[in-house]
């Protein structure tokens, strides 16, 4: 018990000395310690504010990211819809070609190399004996860059259709200058353009053929085209006009003083009611060409228009179609 009391008294004595020493610490030191604590708290407060400031841009970035994702999803949906539409159109054209050529499972299958050789031989023969068709490219100076690109794509599809045809045309691209926008765009967009088996020239169709043999196809012509004659030269106006300037190709034919004709749309088709009440006879260059090719193969304008006249133009083939017209193209 004595020892325990002794230890307790020693502890109490030590604490008293410690308190006495604390009492002798200068007030300046205490003030400095308080200032240090205050500065530390201020720094902590600043760090918190900085964290809050830095968080705000992050939230804005998140909102921007959501907007970007939403726009991207909309764009992807639109792209998917366009791809689906193109796929359906491609399948429809493939079916039309199979029906025209009478394709069946019994037909012999050739390798790509053989098919390429056959196609090349047909095109070479067409340049000697085939019916002649020119695409007049003299009106491209008044077209926008977008319209030039669309025309270059139409020329590619036109040539592709001619390659697949059983009896291809002898094609001419007239008034196509090497320093023109269309020439550069065709080289940029169309692989192997300079190797196309067609005649590309800066000359006009009048420089190449007699005036009396030329028939300029225009939707504004009064006379309907009845047949395709191997002794005639058919001219398509190479024009994409989104501003819908009327009678451009017809005016061009007037400048050349050549005969004009139109596809027999009025004779074999009727207007179809649609929600937009839209009806148009203006076709792309490759669409007119596909109709001519099919007519040359079948001798029927109804079949040709049924196969290639776009459904969105507001016309359908008349139910009481007439008998096929004769084809006077030279046969082998």
Commentary on this structure:
With 332 residues, the chain is α/β, with parallel strands linked by helices. 55% of the residues lie in helices and 9% in strands. It contains 10 helices and 8 strands. The strands form 2 sheets. Strands 3-2-1-5-4-6 form a 6-stranded parallel β-sheet, sandwiched between helices. Strand 2, helix 5 (181-189) and strand 3 form a beta-alpha-beta unit. It is globular, with a radius of gyration of 41 Å. The N and C termini lie far apart (138 Å).
Key descriptive features of the protein:
six-stranded parallel sheet; alpha/beta; 10 helices; 9% strand; disordered C terminus; 55% helix; 332 residues; disordered N terminus; two-stranded antiparallel sheet
At a glance:
This protein has helices at 2-23, 27-101, 112-129, 145-164, 181-189, 205-208, 248-256, 265-268, 285-298, 301-308, and strands spanning 132-136, 170-174, 199-200, 214-217, 233-237, 259-261, 269-271, 315-317. With 332 residues, the chain is α/β, with parallel strands linked by helices. Mean pLDDT is 79; it is low at 1-8, 46-55 and 321-332.
> Spans with pLDDT under 50 lasting ≥5 residues?
1-8, 46-55, 321-332
> Structural class of the secondary structure composition?
alpha/beta
- Helicity level: 55-70%
Main sheet? 6 strands, parallel
Average pLDDT works out at 79
- How do the SSEs run, as a string of H and E? HHHEHEHEHEEHEHEHHE
Strand content: 5-15%
Number of helices: 10
Terminal Cα span: 138 Å
Q: Which shape, going by the Cα principal axes?
A: globular
Rg result: 41 Å
How many runs of DSSP E, i.e. beta strands? 8
- Order of strands, main sheet, comes to 3-2-1-5-4-6
